[in-house]
Design goal:
heterodimer; A: about 190 residues; Rna Polymerase Sigma Factor, Chain: A; B: about 150 residues; mainly alpha
């Protein structure tokens, strides 16, 4: 059973990422805060007796469900249908090479350390904007897999899809991000 | 060695993806750390609300056990209930029902006994009377009883 301190530490460690992840999905700070609070309370009320190691996966699942509930309540069916059916890339260029992109931005990375705070903030803003522009399932898979550091099986469990789908979503998300950032001359 | 250089020649696309994702995640972490103060405050408030709910849930769970322990203590004629076992808890919970059923059976038995006693008293009075019991089945005697006395 997670103690009060363990639960507090867990929530503290995850709350800001949860907020940003939800903002990417709902594009509304107030709604995102409500959703995160709702997810925290659901976790505390129903799963506080679980071992601390189980909390991250449970919380991510609750947060995903709370976000879905918000979409249902808002009746944004068009957005939901568009996002959830977007398994296929609209980009016909299948031969896009991520490794080439990584190589192409290598030079600009060398000078990144010299960039000032304003430039860094601008880059951060652009990267966040590109992440927000990803299709919902790709973004969710990317953030759960790489930001929340869940493994493929855990990500699949949270998203309610197969592990293969998770890999596909992650791959497409990474390629879409790389291409979009490269087009803007940004080296992440 | 620069990992990008290494991965440029790597044949593992998943490793390249992970490398790129890690770079993006560094920026996302930076962005998450720079949330507005009011947002951070609301998140702190939400966290405290959640923790308060968790404490309330724990106290409710503890209170649902306590009264049963107290009941068992009462059944133990003043025992402190610290050694209460699930068996005693079960016995303590069904004891009122057993007492109720026993009480109902006793009341039923008492009523039946009272009816038997009343019937026996009537029979004894009839047999001890000067008038024979067969007289009560005689229609003329019934009419005699119904007729007004002078």
């Amino acid at each position: 059973m997670a103690s009060d301190l363990e639960l507090s530490d867990f929530l503290k460690s995850v709350e800001k990422r949860a907020f940003k992840r939800t903002v990417f999905a709902v594009r509304d700070d107030d709604a995102a805060l409500d959703i995160v609070q709702d997810a925290m309370i659901r976790l505390a009320e129903k799963y506080a007796d679980r071992p601390p190691g189980e909390l991250p996966l449970i919380f991510q699942r609750i947060l995903s469900n709370a976000t879905m509930d918000w979409f249902r309540r808002q009746k944004v069916r068009n957005a939901a249908v568009r996002n959830f059916s977007d398994f296929e890339s609209a980009d016909p260029e299948q031969e896009f090479d991520l490794l080439e992109t990584l190589g192409a931005v290598e030079g600009s990375m060398a000078s990144e350390s010299a960039s000032d705070a304003v430039a860094r903030a601008q880059i951060l803003h652009l990267i966040e904007a590109e992440v927000a522009e990803l299709p919902a399932r790709q973004r969710e898979a990317f953030l759960l897999r790489y930001w929340e550091e869940l493994d493929v099986a855990e990500t699949a469990a949270v998203m309610g899809c197969s592990e293969g789908s998770v890999k596909t979503h992650c791959s497409r998300a990474v390629h879409a991000l790389a291409k979009a950032l490269q087009a803007k001359g940004i080296a992440p | 060695m620069n990992p990008t250089t290494t991965l440029r020649h790597s044949a593992d696309p998943e490793a390249a993806q992970a490398l790129f994702a890690r770079r993006v995640v560094v920026h996302l972490n930076e962005g998450a750390a720079q949330v507005q103060p009011d947002v951070a405050e609301r998140l702190r408030f939400a966290r405290e609300q959640a923790l308060a709910r968790a404490r309330a849930q724990r106290s409710v769970a503890a209170m649902t056990v306590e009264p049963v322990g107290g009941g068992v203590s009462a059944l133990r004629w003043g025992g402190n209930g610290r050694n209460s076992s699930p068996l005693w808890v079960k016995i303590g919970s069904v004891m009122p029902l057993i007492v109720l059923v026993c009480g109902l059976l006793l009341i039923r038995h008492w009523h039946a006994q009272a009816e038997i006693d009343a019937a026996a008293e009537i029979d004894a009075a009839l047999l001890a009377d000067d008038l024979p019991p067969s007289a009560y089945s005689d229609p003329g005697f019934s009419e005699f009883l119904k007729s007004p006395r002078d």
